[in-house]
Amino acid sequence: MSSSTATQDFVPKTRVGKVTDYVDSRVGGSSLVKEFGRKIFPDHWTFMFGEVALYTFVILLISGTFLTFFYDPSMAETEYDGSYLPLRGVEMSVAYASTLDISFDVRGGLFMRQVHHWAALLFVAAVAVHMLRVFFTGAFRKPREFNWIIGCVLLILSLAAGFTGYSLPDDLLSGNGLRIIDGVMKAIPVIGTYLSFFLFGGEFPGTAIVGRLYVLHILLVPAVILLMIGLHLFLVVLHKHSQYPGPGRTNTNVVGYPVGPVYAAKAGGFFFIVFGVLAAIAAAFTINPIWNYGPYDPSPVSAGTQPDWYIGWVDGALRLMPGTLGNFDLEFMIPFPWGTNALSLNVLIPALVPAIILFTLMFAWPWIEGWVTKDTREHHLLDRPRNAPTRTAIGVAGVVFYCVMWAAASSDLIATHFMVSLNDVTYWLRALVIIGPILGFMVSRRISLALQRKDREIALHGRETGRIVRLPHGEFIEVHEPVDDYKLYTLTSFDSPRVSQPTPDENGKVSRLDKVHGRLSRFFFEDRVAPVRPSELAASHDDHHDEVAGTKDRESIASR
Amino acid sequence: MADASHGTPGTTIEFGSPNELVDEFENPGIPPHRPRLADRDPRAEKRAERQVALLFTISVIGTVLFFVGYFFIPLNDTIERLRLQNLTLGLGTAFAMLGIGVGIVHWAKTLMPDHEVTEDRHDIRPESDRQDAEQMVNDILEESGIKRRPLIRNTLLGAVLLAPLPAIAIFRDLGPLPGNVLKETLWDTGVRLTRDPSGTPIRASDVTIGSAFHVIPEGLNEVEDMLEEKAKAVVLLMRLDPNDLNPSPGREDWGYDGIVAYSKICTHVGCPVALYEQHTHHLLCPCHQSTFDVEQEAKVIFGPAARPLPQLPIEVDDEGYLVASSDFQEPVGPSFWERG
Amino acid sequence: MKALSQRRRHPLAAVALLLMALLTTGGIYAAASTANEAQAQTTSFTANDVEEGSKLFTANCASCHGMGATGSDAAPSLVGVGAASVDFQVGTGRMPMQMDGPQAQVKPVQFTEEQTRQLAAYVASLGAGPAIPSDDVLDASEGDTAAGGELFRVNCAMCHNAAAAGGALTRGKYAPALDGTSAKHIYEAMVTGPQNMPVFNDANITPEDKQDIIAFLDTIGEQGSPGGADLGSLGPVSEGLFIWVAGLGVIIAFTVWLTSRSS
């Protein structure tokens, strides 16, 4: 930001101009405006989810700050004497009592609590949907791999933020959630018991955990989230936004609306819309009615004890895992020279394995796919999900895997609401957690391929108009209307990588890695549907006279 | 059709090959701009303007509604009133926000220019920059002398690797070491079984067949670390027909006339296994559905738990109250590495 | 009406509809409240009641429970279950059982109050058992809701849910939701332990404690949720489904409107 010579002679005339000049000549705002004032952002509804996540995060900061003024993260015992009758006189922790006070005695406190919790659920959901959009459209490809990683980290941080917040009211529901965390932690070999004692400051539940989670929840986790959001947005600006393929859009341009005024107005207005929707939900729908659950006590428990949706899948995995396979106990007693140690695979496997699978695949995906395609080009044009059938199918398999586990976390509710046996629900879901992703993979891949073929049909033969025409020699045909150039370009301009066969090296040998690569490449691209080429389209017009009739017909329609 | 749908060889060209440009549809460019109603019709433009203003007015009304809820719906300890206030505050905020948001977006959509604009992308890393940067880094490294002076480099490396260790060690006092506490509970010979939460003792005759009592050890409510002890000591007491029980050798006298007591803490991850079905004699954990059969000494018959619930040996004292004959014979609750 | 239908494609229609829907839901919820009424019941039976009850029993129940209610392979003996048990099972429509299943379902009550009373009189005459509670025992107005809440959470919530919304048991059995259940039936269920529910006799939960529990259930049943619609009081699962379907659905509708070109 060099001191400009042009501004030396500039004398602002209006009052606003004077203020602006005062600021500008000190912070160099002109160059910022020059850089960003007319920056182009492409417009598509699927591009808005990241904004939803960002805005819900801002709403979380606002509502959360309000809550911190009234909440007291102490686990000291107290006797409740607030206005909620069914709990008056009950012994509880100060944390729970202050949450009740926020709900019943602070004007607008209940509203803020509900906004905060609904926003938290929406925040994680928006992050998840945003990531699914990025995945299914291939927006994680070069040069955006690192930003994908930052996104994955943000997802994990948002889970952490959600879970630490969920536990703060110190009610029966969240207390039993912590109890489960404690149980899972103790199952970790060698260090598990120590971890649990360090986290809880001694034996569960102790008197330290709520205060510790509070610091994580209001300080550490949001700070790291903010940092990551900053990096994330910096990279978005650096890369410029990706765009869907279409007429006028290329890999070297961005087509859309300038920040000022249109995009800024839309994005700015959207913040108020998200806030408004959340406020409307918080006005009319209860969330986390902690007054129902009562204070935490290790003895009682409520039917239907589940975590929030984003942690639900781990709980579901815990439910699905059988403790014994046949006569084979999954809890081992391992004899060591110094004594026997216990290894609880019935807890460790479901708590860790699905998470490891999902997160490893998620973090590594840009490089896995890059290795399979051997594609080192930059991609600023997105894939329509149908044009990458195998990637789409893998994504769907992941979603199904997740959903089955979430369903498992609500197995008791499924049982009571559909009048089926709880045990049968568990048996079915155990099968489905394996079969579901495979079925999801096959079905969605077939659907993608079918949609691609439909695109080919439309590109080659035009759109079915539903009009039946009788030709002079008596034949009936349905008139197909060729698509216009813009539509044709949208339907045909996509990459369709082919299977790459492993090539032998100079010794005539194919390395094992190349073989694996060849197999993976076949798995990905064997069933490819190639985009229509101009020569094909021309040939098809020569071959099929019904299209010609269609074209003639169209001309006759036009002349009418 | 397979032929046509897969593309005939020769008409499709692998990406990157030189003919690519030849057989590909030409990019037709951005479709022509279609003017909106407000672009063509001044009356529509005026209408849109009024709509935006109306939406902003709705926002003002929403804000007023919020204040009405805040100041004119005083809380009076009834749930109805709180619900009404929450609804008013919420809808007021919702209108205030949606009015602004929808208004601005409507303004942008109808009245601001809607011509799509094209902007070129630039190289993320221009080659000239890369060369300059490489040169700069080389110069910096050279000037610092880190390559030429391995002694400095290696000692620095060692120092940097060691320096964070205190930052980890300082967290040692987060909690005490486990010691033996996970293997001990408040139960001991002669400790009375009392009702949860009142702490009143239970006579054997109080426990009729089909009953289930939620039990804590006598004196639990008075100890200092009440919740920690309770988290290990809670017990479920049931009476069955003695013929339904099948105690294994050595455990015949752990119950009293069909009355048995089992730890309520699940051996899976520690939820209270509090659901007792008095006809099937099954115990169910509501968290992860582990099912234990009291007829078979609380053996796991379904779900993720792998180990039976520990049984608390009980007997009756001189006054007819139920007491523990000893502590649990094994650690209660979820398993842990040192459980052994 | 015509003007309305013309405007339905208007960009603001979605917003208006959403606001209307939310307003209506909230409004209806705020207005709705249910009240339970406890029924009066006398506990003294005449010989005539027993006589009539015996006839009803032979005609309607003996096929499963056996002549003289001594039980069969299909159904347990009713000797000593008491009048409370009959009043609960028959008075809630669980008995006579409609079909074999994991447990007897609630259905429209099959007998008149008088007939139920006579059946209860007959079964009570077979052996001593819990009697139908009298009105003064059921009077919950004196009950301590907070104490009742504590007892409910320790003894009942694990099956019936902390908000009494019901829950699942093993193999198709379930603990029903308790809203709308009369004080008498709640009391009778506690003393008799119907189906797989454990018995909570007066030594375990005293009659005063039972009053407290009934007072607690009355209170939470009447007051509703302060935060608006309670989504079934089912906890995080229904909340998660709601935000994914309704919350995200509305947001997506807005994003589509926001990025579509104006006509």
Automatic annotation (TrEMBL), chain A:
GO MF term set: metal ion binding; oxidoreductase activity; quinol-cytochrome-c reductase activity
Annotated compartments: Cell membrane
Gene3D superfamilies per UniProt: Cytochrome Bc1 Complex, Chain C
Catalyzed chemical reaction(s): a quinol + 2 Fe(III)-[cytochrome c](out) = a quinone + 2 Fe(II)-[cytochrome c](out) + 2 H(+)(out)
Keyword Iron: yes
Cofactor(s) it depends on: heme
Keywords of the record: Cell membrane, Electron transport, Heme, Iron, Membrane, Metal-binding, Respiratory chain, Translocase, Transmembrane, Transmembrane helix, Transport
Classification via Pfam families: Cytochrom_B_N_2 (PF13631)
Superkingdom, natural source: Bacteria
InterPro entries: Cyt_b/b6_N, Cytb/b6-like_sf, Di-haem_cyt_TM
Residue spans crossing the bilayer: 52-71, 117-136, 148-168, 180-202, 214-238, 270-291, 347-368, 388-407, 427-444
The protein's name: Cytochrome bc1 complex cytochrome b subunit
Organism: Arthrobacter echini
UniProtKB/TrEMBL annotation, chain C:
Maturation and modification: Binds 2 heme c groups covalently per subunit.
Signal peptide residue numbers: 1-30
Organism listed in the record: Arthrobacter echini
Principal localisation: membrane
Protein name: Cytochrome bc1 complex cytochrome c subunit
Keyword flag Ribosomal protein: no
Annotated positions binding heme c 1: C61, C64, H65
Lineage: Bacteria, Bacillati, Actinomycetota, Actinomycetes, Micrococcales
Assembly: The cytochrome bc1 complex is composed of a cytochrome b (QcrB), the Rieske iron-sulfur protein (QcrA) and a diheme cytochrome c (QcrC) subunit.
The keyword Isomerase is assigned to this record: no
Superkingdom in the source lineage: Bacteria
Entry keyword set: Cell membrane, Electron transport, Heme, Iron, Membrane, Metal-binding, Repeat, Respiratory chain, Signal, Translocase, Transmembrane, Transmembrane helix, Transport
Residues bound to heme c 2: C156, C159, H160
Ranges of residues in domain Cytochrome c: 48-127, 143-221
Residues annotated as transmembrane: 241-259
Subcellular location(s) of the protein: Cell membrane
GO cellular component: plasma membrane
Topology with respect to the bilayer: Multi-pass membrane protein
Enzyme Commission code(s) on record: 7.1.1.8
Catalytic activity from the UniProt record: a quinol + 2 Fe(III)-[cytochrome c](out) = a quinone + 2 Fe(II)-[cytochrome c](out) + 2 H(+)(out)
PROSITE patterns named in the record: CYTC (PS51007)
InterPro entries: bc1_cytC-su, Cyt_c-like_dom, Cyt_c-like_dom_sf, Cytochrome_c_Oxidase_Subunit
Gene Ontology molecular-function annotations: heme binding; iron ion binding; quinol-cytochrome-c reductase activity
